[in-house]
Design goal:
With 455 residues, the chain is an alpha/beta fold. It has four domains: 122 residues, Rossmann fold (3-Layer(aba) Sandwich), CATH 3.40.50; 153 residues, 3-Layer(aba) Sandwich (Rossmann fold); 71 residues, Helicase, Ruva Protein, domain 3; 64 residues, Arc Repressor Mutant, subunit A (Orthogonal Bundle). 45% of the residues lie in helices and 13% in strands. It contains 18 helices and 16 strands. The strands form five sheets. It has a five-stranded parallel beta sheet with strand order 2-1-3-4-5, sandwiched between helices. It has a five-stranded parallel beta sheet with strand order 7-10-13-6-14. Helix 4 packs parallel to helix 13, helix 6 packs across helix 7 and helix 10 crosses helix 12. 33% of the residues are buried.
Amino acid sequence: MTPRVVLVAPDPATQRRVQMALGQHGFLVAAASTPRDALRMVEMESPTALVVDARHAEERAFATEHAGTATPIIGLVDSDDADTVRALLDGGVADVVPLTLLEPMLPRRLDTYVRRAQRGRGRRGTRKGDMLVGHSEAIVEAMGRLEMIAKSDMGAAIFGETGTGKELVARAIHARSRRADKPLVVANCTAIPEQLFENELFGHERGAFTGAETRNQGLLAEAEGGTLLLDEIGDIAPSVQAKLLRLLQFREYKMVGGTKTLRADVRIITSTHRDLAAAVSAGTFREDLFYRLNMLHMVLPPLRARLDDIPLLVDHFVRLHNEREGLRHEGFTASAIRMMQRHDWPGNVRELEGVVYRSLVMAGDERRLDEEAVDIHRVQRTRQPAASLDMSRPFAELKAAVIERFERSYLEQILTKTQGNLSQAAREAQHERKSLWRLLNKHGIDPKQFSGKMP
């Protein structure tokens, strides 16, 4: 059955562009100039999805008003319009597609809904976790590359610093691939000892080694027909690299203790935070394996290279953790957001999510959180004696360092005195309990470690 789409776009040029883009992928597009006409078409067509040109106020209101129905709604937006993206997602719209990425992205999004409808699963759009959140040039480029990689069935490599979302991207590639209705299996290479890697990946026959009383299938068999993500591939030992190369070249393997050659109908995606080219030069990573992995690849930008995305990311995490934790916070003030944009985020998006989560949980009844509530400073700092102060440093910098040391020393002393009792410590310090807790978070001090200590 030919999939059908209803499009709401007052501009004839946009209608033609969408019809051409989707027509090449086998979709029938019924175009409407007004929301009222679109509703009539939805009733007649029972479409796979409703695509709305959300750059216009009337159509944007229509999209959020009808979000959450049996027909998923996809909003078309300008790539630099963060407010519209936020309004649509807050309003329950299933997905958004930037106009700059319409041709590669929209057909792939719709293919996902077609497969879901055929499988009888879920009637709404992509899960929040399926999407890269942001509108910066760096993330828009990454999203476009993601869509192109998802069309292929070749293995792919994802590079990026820790916390940039490599597993999220791998899941998105799988969800948009022809293997979406098959398993996605994730293997953390750093957690598998070298001597067990082959067994974990290929499985073993009964009697292959002492204690192998039954035949166990490995991760490849578990992922059959689907996708296997080898996370942190840069950490595997040289002895494992040769076996992995053969698997990638011929899609063949043998179980440990087995003699039969098995075929693997599995797409293998790898990810790493390491510089594999440098590892090749250092002789710790096989050059032939590197080139095999690097045939299709993408590099995820660090958060410091996409600071303009922080407002959208923060808004996303506020909604996510409000829902999970039963909270009712409205978000962060503009000054708090600007404060976050001044941070260098060595832990990238993962660190940002942790900051947002801790801040929300510790904020009490505050609706909108200010700078004081932003809990960024969690790294333990080494204490230095006062005699070691570097008097060549600027006054303001030196003053801040002295105050920080005083705060930590005071907190440790009063928690020792009260044996970790936070309420008693707040009374002793003549400080609000909530403010005292924020200071503890700032310095990475856990009151529980003082429980039972006598002054």
